[in-house]
Amino acid sequence: MEANSGLFSKRLPLISAGIFLGLGLGGFVDGIVLHQILQWHHMLSNVRPLTTDSNLDLNMVWDGLFHALDWVLTVTGVVLLWRAGGSKDVVWSSQTFGGSLLMGAGLFNVVEGIIDHQILGIHHVKPGTHQLAWDLGFLFLGALLVFIGWMMLQKGNSQLTVDS
């Protein structure tokens, strides 16, 4: 047990970097694909529909603030990754890093889906017919990514324990 907790602490900087990068990159995928390319929704499109120029302007500003947050999360992940790279104690593993990225991206979907789609109702993944199904699918995808990422971390942990 003690060996595993020591191993975890040596992986934690890489896990933290991966989660922050996953959060930021997951947000960018959402913003670029759903907001800009498909134009299914914007940050406030359920409360301020795109029926007037002022509502369109307001949604664009909030989309920009959303992307600014994604940028901060991504830069934080890069800084954490850089710091981890400078530490001789950090155990490097593609399994650990990839699992952490998936967990971060999945956490983005789950948190954003619960807060923005369900609690605040400021937008939905694809408004209109079957919007609840789209919202639940978004949450399910997020939970699936978290689960797969967690499993990758566990597999990476067992591989490192065997190799030690």
UniProtKB/TrEMBL annotation:
Transmembrane segments: 12-38, 65-85, 97-120, 132-153
Organism of origin: Anabaena azotica FACHB-119
Protein name: DUF2243 domain-containing protein
The UniProt record lists the keyword Disulfide bond: no
Keywords in alphabetical order: Membrane, Transmembrane, Transmembrane helix
